[in-house]
Amino acid sequence: MQEVQKQSQTAFQKQILSTFEHSLTEEQRFLQDVLTGKIKLIPHDEVMEKLEYVLENGLTR
Predict the structure, then answer these.
(1) Which ranges constitute the DSSP H helices of the chain?
(2) Using CA atoms, how far apart are residues 28 and 24, in angstroms rounded to an integer?
(3) Helix, strand, or coil here: 44?
């Protein structure tokens, strides 16, 4: 009986999570991915440094 109750609770939690994830806006999904590490942010200074380098030296592969 306890196993059935646990499975039912797990299914309910999955349904709640799915509903929550579907209700997120694109911005909220982006922020969630940043917080969980799925998206890595690059500091502005690092981007500017690389941009200056490429502008001075061109693209090298």
Answers:
(1) 2-23, 26-36, 44-57
(2) 6
(3) helix
